[in-house]
């Protein structure tokens, strides 16, 4: 028995949108509950349909992404956001915005989008191998190479599991910790690594070989 994933799409009425709709229609567990090309309507539609996942096209104009994500989470704290990007316009700084759980390039294979949707809807994060490589090359959240030695064994366990795509709830079960304790560990890890987002912490973990990488990296 599979879990139905309800998707709300914000996309600019392009051929990419046609492809997304066709891709979702082929998957029994993915249902497109609504779509818009006007991000000003997204919060209202999100409240109306209460989807499991929001897909937002970064090429939509006339909106500030950080403010949009913040407003969505203020109204619907459960919202999970997957972004679509053009590889030639992709700005790595968007990965520092809290609330974005993944990004897929429009040029990628349809099955990559399907995998990303399922991962993000389950509470994990997803970035393609290309994005991971770009992040490492540009050294987002560049850290002192000796920082690893300052992380306790437990902190290294926590960040290693996060690098494998685990959410806080799953980590708490695996390590027999309360979820608040996991959050406390994350806060200390962020401080030690001088990072501001989960994606930056994950990139640091990958650079330092903590956690397992996957093809089309699910992190």
From TrEMBL:
GO-annotated biological processes: phosphorelay signal transduction system; regulation of DNA-templated transcription
MF terms in GO: DNA binding
Domain of life from the UniProt record: Bacteria
Domain HTH luxR-type: 144-209
Domain Response regulatory: 6-121
SMART domains in alphabetical order: HTH_LUXR (SM00421)
Keywords: DNA-binding, Phosphoprotein
Pfam family name, one: GerE
InterPro entries: CheY-like_superfamily, Sig_transdc_resp-reg_C-effctor, Sig_transdc_resp-reg_receiver, Tscrpt_reg_LuxR_C, WalR-like
Residues bearing the modification 4-aspartylphosphate: 57
Stated name of the protein: Response regulator transcription factor
Organism whose genome encodes this protein: Atlanticothrix silvestris CENA357
